[in-house]
TrEMBL record:
InterPro entries membership: FAD-dep_OxRdtase_2_FAD-bd (IPR003953), FAD/NAD-bd_sf (IPR036188), KsdD_DH (IPR014614), Succ_DH/fumarate_Rdtase_cat_sf (IPR027477)
Domain FAD-dependent oxidoreductase 2 FAD-binding: 11-539
Residue ranges crossing the lipid bilayer per the database entry: none
SUPFAM superfamilies: FAD/NAD(P)-binding domain (SSF51905)
UniProt-listed NCBIfam families: PRK12834.1
Record organism: Planomicrobium okeanokoites (Planococcus okeanokoites)
Keyword Acetylation attached: no
UniProt protein name: FAD-binding dehydrogenase
Length: 558
């Protein structure tokens, strides 16, 4: 406690003011519980990583899908989930993750949309098709589009939960303490009874910017229960490399960050020290289409391209990747393929026609039309030319090269890296071979088949997938090359929890008074996704596990 501060006791303490923490806090206070919400960051970062997100949510058989002619079902979604997850530790580390996965699919096919709608959450009418797979029916990937973009993106999904929490702050049920860094959990008789840590000096940095760790005091708070919702390790590259799995090749030496530096994984070790079990440490989710932000907010700030399926993808030496390593098909499969080349970057080569139709950038700040809920701006996406954020990267970003002909493009690629790995004749041969496949409506090039198949979906044909055309035909230019970097993002493993979000110990028993939700818990059970994500399931996992944890802790502390 700081000098002169009175001892305080709460029903429940929530550690972390991200989406999972806000959801849990709102549920607790709705149940009449007295809650302390602490976070090491200043108030500007209220809402955590979710605020920066594109706001995609995984829903099953939704009205939006049905209006787009998509036939989905819980049975098909569960088939896809199992194919993506590849649960192979079901007797141990995957035991609870599998149960959480089934519960989450039920939630996504059931009350999830209505629950959010009652809080005012609305969705963009065109459903996105993420992680398309490219394998057999029971393999990885979404069989149908399920990526529902929240109207308002990340801030739009944070807003209703922030509103609920702030209402309870006004009525006295929630105490919010930013700049409170938890250093340990209090335990007594095997139960968790509170937290202790350091009060950090006030900071006026903007959202996402690095804040100081200068300590000005200490705190200790007791409670009947503690919920840990502190996020993963995406901003801690040292910890990422420490846990990097051999199956994905060597850990990249150079990597961009898709999350702020405060996503440091501290609470994982702290909770483990209090007896919590950490499982599936080797499972993580990093993107392969990262570009350096020309206007960075945090160190090594990377933005992910959300590509359509038409860009040609080459390794650092100029060899086209084999099927199904196509844009938007299998994130981790392509990550493994890239890392095994010995280089941690790769290339897209495309045309002006492709970038105009197919390039979107992930994140709330890169989609001002959707974030600002501007219908006129959204409609302007169908006009000729790249969107303003994409054009800004073309003009100012160091990873983009634009040229009127292939020799100049290749020269620019080699100049950018300084390694002279790209051979003009080899690149020309491969692109020309692909272009010949467009002379007929049938083809043996599976990427061309996938492009044509995508355009059978009305949403892709309207705003997402360019009409197939020859890359080397000057009328489709100019030509564009984009250097793609690995960008860190999500932790798929975490604290193992049962279906009440209670943290388990090494013996598989719940630790009294200790709960976890969100990324720190692998979005439920210590790994609801298994090895791979179907996308739209990270925010949804925070919402679902946060809701479960809040309601369970409310009952426990009542």
């Amino acid at each position: 406690m700081t000098k002169g501060e009175a001892w305080m006791e709460f029903d429940v303490i929530v550690v972390g003011a991200g989406l999972a923490g806000l959801t849990a806090t709102a549920e607790l206070a709705d149940a009449g519980r007295k809650v302390l919400l602490v976070d090491q960051e200043p108030e500007a970062s209220f809402g955590g990583q979710a605020w920066w997100s594109f706001g995609g949510l995984f829903l099953i058989d939704s009205p939006e899908q049905r209006r787009m002619g998509i036939k989905d079902s819980k049975e098909l979604a569960w088939q896809d989930w199992l194919g993506a997850a590849g649960f192979d530790r079901t007797g141990d580390e995957d035991y609870w993750g599998l149960k959480w996965a089934k519960a989450y699919v039920d939630f996504a096919a059931g009350e999830k949309r209505e629950w959010l709608a009652k809080m005012g959450v609305k969705f963009f009418p065109v459903v996105g098709w993420a992680e398309r797979g490219g394998y057999l029916a029971e393999g990885h990937g979404n069989s149908v589009p399920r990526f529902h973009i929240v109207w308002g993106t990340g801030p739009g999904i944070v807003a209703p939960f922030e509103r609920r929490v702030r209402e309870h702050m006004k009525n006295g049920l929630v105490e919010y303490r930013p700049r409170h860094q938890v250093d340990g959990l209090l335990t007594q008789g095997g139960a968790v009874t509170g937290i202790h840590g350091s009060i950090l000096e006030p900071s006026n940095v903007a959202r996402g910017e690095v804040s100081s760790r200068n300590k000005i005091g200490d705190f200790t708070y007791n409670a009947k229960a503690v919920i840990v919702t502190s996020g993963g390790i995406g901003g801690n590259h040292e910890l990422i490399r420490k846990n990097w799995p051999e199956r994905l090749g060597e850990a990249p030496q150079d990597m961009l960050s898709g999350v702020p530096e405060h996503v440091d994984g501290r609470m994982l070790a702290i909770t483990e020290q209090a007896g919590g079990r950490l499982v599936n440490r080797d499972r993580m989710w990093h993107y392969t289409e990262g570009i350096k932000n020309w206007s960075p907010v945090w160190k090594r700030h990377g933005i992910r391209i959300l590509p359509g399926p038409s860009s040609l993808w080459f390794d650092a030496t100029g060899k086209r990747f084999p099927a199904p390593n196509f844009p938007g098909f299998d994130t981790l499969g392509t990550l493994e393929t890239i890392q095994k080349t010995g280089y941690s970057y790769s290339w897209f080569i495309l045309t002006q026609k492709i970038i105009e139709k197919e390039f979107a950038l992930s994140g709330s700040e890169q989609n001002p039309d959707l974030t600002g809920k501007s219908i006129p701006q959204v409609l302007s996406r169908v006009k000729k030319g790249a969107t303003a954020p994409v054009q800004a990267f073309m003009d100012k970003g160091e990873d983009f090269i634009v040229a009127d002909n292939l020799p100049d493009l290749v020269s620019g690629m080699n100049e950018l890296t300084g390694e002279n790995l790209i051979d003009l004749k080899e690149i020309e041969r491969q692109i020309a071979a692909r272009d010949r496949q467009l002379d007929n409506t049938f083809t043996k090039d599976l990427q061309v088949t996938a492009m044509r198949g995508a355009r059978n979906y009305r949403g892709d044909r309207l705003i997402r997938v360019a009409a197939p055309h020859k890359i080397l035909d000057p009328k489709n230019g100019p030509l564009i090359a984009v250097r793609l970097n690995i960008v860190s993002r999500k932790t798929l493993g975490g604290l193992q929890t049962d279906l009440s979000s209670r943290v388990l110990n090494d013996a598989g028993q719940p630790i009294p008074g200790l709960y976890a939700a969100g990324e720190v818990a692998g979005f439920g059970g210590g790994g609801v996704h298994g090895y791979r994500s179907l996308e739209g399931t990270f925010l949804g996992g925070c919402l679902f596990s946060g809701r479960v944890a809040g309601r369970a802790a409310a009952e426990f502390s009542g």
